[in-house]
C-alpha cells in the first residue's frame, strides 16, 4: 500500500486563496436579484467550509496531506453549488407551500 505524502509547513497562500474565493462568492451571490436566497446559500456553504478548515487545522496543524490541500482549493466552490440545491430542498421540506 502506497503511503500518503505529506506537505510539510503548509503555506498560508491556500488560506488566503480560500478567503479570496469566499469574498468573490459572497459578492456574486449578493448581486443576484432573487431576494437573497442564493446569497444565504453561499453563506451557509462558507460556514460549512470554514468549519472544515478549522477541523483540518486542529487535526494536523503543521502537516497537510494532498486531500487537505484539494479541499482548501476546491471545497468552497463545490460546497457552494451543492448548498444551492440542498437549501432549496430543506426549505421545501419545511413548507411545501413556499415558492422559490
What order do the helices and strands come in, and which of them pair?
Blueprint: E1 6-8, H1 13-30, H2 37-59, E2 63-65, H3 66-94
Antiparallel strand pairs: 1-2
Word description of this protein:
With 100 residues, this protein is mainly α. The chain has one domain (6-94). Helix content is 70%, strand content 6%. The chain contains three helices and two strands. Strands 1-2 form a two-stranded antiparallel sheet. Helix 1 (13-30) packs antiparallel against helix 2. The chain is elongated. The model has no long low-confidence stretch (mean pLDDT 81).
Bin the strand percentage.
Answer: 5-15%
Topology, number of strands:
2
Give the N-terminus to C-terminus distance in angstroms: 49 Å
Mean pLDDT score, rounded?
81
Largest sheet: 2 strands, antiparallel
Order of helices and strands: EHHEH
Strand order of the largest sheet: 1-2
Alpha-beta content class: mainly alpha
The count of helical stretches stands at 3
Shape: elongated
Helix content: over 70%
| Global Rg | 16 Å
Oligomer: single chain
Q: How many separate domains?
A: 1
What keywords describe this structure?
mainly alpha; two-stranded antiparallel sheet; 3 helices; 6% strand
Brief sketch in words of this structure:
With 100 residues, this protein is mainly alpha-helical. It is built from 3 helices and 2 strands, in the order βααβα. The protein has one domain.
